[in-house]
Specification:
5 strands; mainly beta; globular
Length: 75
């Protein structure tokens, strides 16, 4: 089974070896049939502290690294 890959924007890089990535997607409302913008923040492992705020990154699902980190940066 392939690992999930998501694309998002870095919103925080204050933690050591961790960035926070905001991933937004559009989903259709089941009753009104309009598209709604939904977003979610993920804690992502960044071992080199290479990525800064505002950058667009791709993240991949991974084994749990800590209590909240289950994603790694792949680009």
């Amino acid at each position: 089974m392939p690992k999930r890959v998501l694309k998002g924007v870095v919103v925080s890089d204050k933690l050591d070896k961790t960035i926070t990535v905001l991933v937004s997607r559009k989903v259709m409302h089941p009753v009104y049939k309009k598209y709604i913008k939904k977003s979610k923040k993920y804690s992502v492992h960044d071992k080199d502290n290479k990525f800064k705020n505002g950058e667009i990154v791709s993240i991949q699902e991974n084994r749990p690294i800590s209590k909240t980190k289950k994603w790694i940066v792949i680009n």
